[in-house]
Amino acid sequence: MVDDFSKRRVKSGIPGFDDLIGGGFPEESTVLITGSTGTGKTTFVAQYIYKGAEEHGEPGVLVTLEERAKDIRREMAQFGWNFKKYEKEGLIAIVDGVSAISGIPSEERFVLEDRINVDNFLRYIYRVVKAINAKRLAIDSIPSIAFRLQNEGDIRGVLLKLNTILLEMGVTTLLTTEAPDPKAGRISRYGIEEYISRGVVILDLQEKNIELKRYLLIRKMRGTKHSMRKYPFEITDRGVVVYPSGEIY
Q: Signal sequence span per UniProt (predicted)?
């Protein structure tokens, strides 16, 4: 039996972050990135996929359910990230989960036509992962998968099924969700997401000296030792940067 602590690490691509989790995410784990609007969740997971391709040659799939693929590429270009380059090389696949459902024509290679049917959604993502032999997967975001479900039991069932499929894929996955009120202990939209994930990272905005500052907290990370402190981070011209020393340089 392999000790979780001896598992291969998957580098996050986030400067300063891997120092807090023993060198990277435990391989084949599912990690929840949660926070309120504007905390940087989409940038965090896009950086994970992009840097995996750029720095380690690891194929990754980015499933975008809130923005069109071309909008993601344009927004991430501000950090100097050329997603198209690695898409052409077969190292990145962006699954557009917005265009078809919104009735907007799409010229994307990977277009999700039915995220309303969760089984079809999961089957399609599975096929894309296998098509490029992906080692990394990011889904942004969980509420966009379950947005038509009202019953808590149905939502729980969908998330459990998602977790099972992710384990079968053998990828290291980041999922995003909304945190309605972290200060009141609500760290996810449904209160279920954190239980299906082996890791939970909370991104937060706090007022300090009459301006908002970004902070990160690793709430849970099974299979590795990790810090339980809050650390400042910024979204810079090179993406998300975490400051393990607690000081912003």
A: none
